[in-house]
Amino acid sequence: QVQLVESGGGLVQAGGSLRLSCAASGRTSSSAVIGWFRHTPGKEREFVAAINWSGTSTYYAVSVKGRVTISRDAAKNTVYLQMNSLKPEDTAVYYCAAAASAGEGYNYWGQGTQVTVSS
Protein backbone atom coordinates (compact mmCIF):
# COMPACT_ATOMS: atom_id res chain seq x y z
CA GLN A 1 0.00 0.00 0.00
CA VAL A 2 1.27 3.47 -0.92
CA GLN A 3 -0.04 6.75 0.44
CA LEU A 4 0.47 9.98 -1.49
CA VAL A 5 -0.12 13.50 -0.21
CA GLU A 6 0.13 16.51 -2.51
CA SER A 7 0.77 20.07 -1.43
CA GLY A 8 1.91 23.37 -2.87
CA GLY A 9 -1.07 24.37 -4.95
CA GLY A 10 -2.50 27.86 -4.86
CA LEU A 11 -3.39 30.98 -6.78
CA VAL A 12 -0.73 32.54 -8.99
CA GLN A 13 -0.69 35.12 -11.76
CA ALA A 14 0.07 34.15 -15.33
CA GLY A 15 3.81 33.94 -15.83
CA GLY A 16 4.39 32.93 -12.23
CA SER A 17 5.72 29.72 -10.74
CA LEU A 18 4.62 27.06 -8.30
CA ARG A 19 6.27 23.97 -6.90
CA LEU A 20 4.03 21.06 -6.07
CA SER A 21 5.12 18.32 -3.69
CA CYS A 22 4.04 14.70 -3.49
CA ALA A 23 5.04 12.98 -0.28
CA ALA A 24 4.99 9.19 -0.53
CA SER A 25 4.78 6.71 2.31
CA GLY A 26 4.26 2.99 2.56
CA ARG A 27 5.72 0.29 0.33
CA THR A 28 7.48 2.15 -2.49
CA SER A 29 9.63 -0.13 -4.63
CA SER A 30 12.76 0.98 -6.45
CA SER A 31 11.01 0.33 -9.78
CA ALA A 32 8.02 2.53 -8.95
CA VAL A 33 7.03 5.43 -11.15
CA ILE A 34 5.45 8.59 -9.75
CA GLY A 35 3.36 10.63 -12.13
CA TRP A 36 1.60 13.97 -12.03
CA PHE A 37 -1.78 14.39 -13.67
CA ARG A 38 -4.23 17.25 -13.82
CA HIS A 39 -7.95 17.48 -14.22
CA THR A 40 -10.26 20.31 -15.15
CA PRO A 41 -14.05 19.84 -14.95
CA GLY A 42 -15.43 18.92 -18.33
CA LYS A 43 -12.10 17.67 -19.64
CA GLU A 44 -10.27 14.36 -19.59
CA ARG A 45 -7.61 13.82 -16.97
CA GLU A 46 -4.29 14.81 -18.51
CA PHE A 47 -0.84 13.37 -17.94
CA VAL A 48 1.70 16.05 -17.00
CA ALA A 49 4.97 14.39 -16.06
CA ALA A 50 6.46 11.28 -14.47
CA ILE A 51 9.70 10.10 -12.92
CA ASN A 52 10.98 6.71 -11.93
CA TRP A 53 11.79 6.28 -8.27
CA SER A 54 15.51 6.02 -8.96
CA GLY A 55 15.29 9.44 -10.60
CA THR A 56 17.06 8.32 -13.76
CA SER A 57 14.16 8.77 -16.20
CA THR A 58 11.66 11.55 -16.63
CA TYR A 59 8.70 11.95 -18.96
CA TYR A 60 6.78 15.09 -19.91
CA ALA A 61 3.62 15.94 -21.77
CA VAL A 62 4.21 18.04 -24.86
CA SER A 63 1.91 20.72 -23.47
CA VAL A 64 4.20 21.42 -20.51
CA LYS A 65 7.65 20.44 -21.76
CA GLY A 66 10.11 23.27 -21.20
CA ARG A 67 7.99 24.85 -18.48
CA VAL A 68 7.81 21.98 -16.00
CA THR A 69 10.49 19.98 -14.20
CA ILE A 70 9.85 16.84 -12.21
CA SER A 71 12.34 15.71 -9.61
CA ARG A 72 12.52 13.60 -6.51
CA ASP A 73 14.23 13.71 -3.14
CA ALA A 74 14.82 10.11 -2.10
CA ALA A 75 15.72 11.06 1.46
CA LYS A 76 12.36 12.78 1.89
CA ASN A 77 10.37 10.27 -0.21
CA THR A 78 9.02 13.27 -2.08
CA VAL A 79 8.52 14.05 -5.75
CA TYR A 80 8.34 17.67 -6.87
CA LEU A 81 6.75 19.35 -9.85
CA GLN A 82 8.27 22.75 -10.54
CA MET A 83 6.02 24.72 -12.86
CA ASN A 84 7.21 27.96 -14.46
CA SER A 85 5.68 30.42 -16.92
CA LEU A 86 2.24 29.34 -15.81
CA LYS A 87 -0.72 30.01 -18.06
CA PRO A 88 -4.44 30.25 -17.26
CA GLU A 89 -4.93 26.95 -19.10
CA ASP A 90 -2.72 25.28 -16.48
CA THR A 91 -5.53 25.82 -13.99
CA ALA A 92 -6.60 22.40 -12.70
CA VAL A 93 -6.54 20.03 -9.78
CA TYR A 94 -3.15 18.35 -9.84
CA TYR A 95 -2.80 14.77 -8.64
CA CYS A 96 0.20 12.60 -8.08
CA ALA A 97 -0.07 8.88 -8.61
CA ALA A 98 2.13 5.83 -8.21
CA ALA A 99 2.65 2.84 -10.48
CA ALA A 100 4.54 -0.27 -9.43
CA SER A 101 6.77 0.04 -12.50
CA ALA A 102 6.89 1.71 -15.91
CA GLY A 103 4.19 0.31 -18.16
CA GLU A 104 1.88 -0.60 -15.31
CA GLY A 105 -1.20 1.30 -14.28
CA TYR A 106 -1.24 3.99 -11.64
CA ASN A 107 -2.92 2.27 -8.73
CA TYR A 108 -2.40 4.80 -5.97
CA TRP A 109 -3.57 8.39 -6.08
CA GLY A 110 -3.33 11.41 -3.83
CA GLN A 111 -6.22 13.69 -2.96
CA GLY A 112 -5.13 16.45 -5.33
CA THR A 113 -4.11 20.07 -4.96
CA GLN A 114 -5.77 23.01 -6.72
CA VAL A 115 -3.69 25.24 -8.98
CA THR A 116 -5.35 28.41 -10.23
CA VAL A 117 -3.60 30.72 -12.68
CA SER A 118 -5.16 34.13 -13.12
CA SER A 119 -4.77 36.14 -16.30
Compute the separation of the termini in Å.
40 Å
Number of strands: 11
Mean pLDDT figure: 94
Per DSSP, the total helix count is 0
User: Percent helix among the residues?
Assistant: under 10%
Structural class: mainly beta
**C-alpha geometry:** globular
Work out the radius of gyration.
13 Å
- Topology as a string of helices (H) and strands (E): EEEEEEEEEEE
Uncertain runs? none
Report on this structure.
- The protein has 119 residues and is mainly β.
- It contains no helices and eleven strands.
- Strands 2, 4, 5, 6, 9, 10 and 11 form a seven-stranded mixed sheet that branches. A four-stranded antiparallel sheet has the order 1-3-8-7, with no helix packed on it.
- Strand 9 (92-99) and strand 10 form a beta hairpin.
- The chain is globular.
- The mean pLDDT is 94.
Helix and strand layout, with pairings?
Layout: E1 2-7, E2 10-13, E3 18-26, E4 33-39, E5 46-52, E6 58-60, E7 68-73, E8 78-83, E9 92-99, E10 106-109, E11 113-118
Parallel strand pairs: 2-11
Antiparallel strand pairs: 1-3, 3-8, 4-5, 4-9, 5-6, 7-8, 9-10, 9-11
Describe what is shown at a glance.
With 119 residues, this protein is mostly beta strands. The chain has strands at 2-7, 10-13, 18-26, 33-39, 46-52, 58-60, 68-73, 78-83, 92-99, 106-109, 113-118.
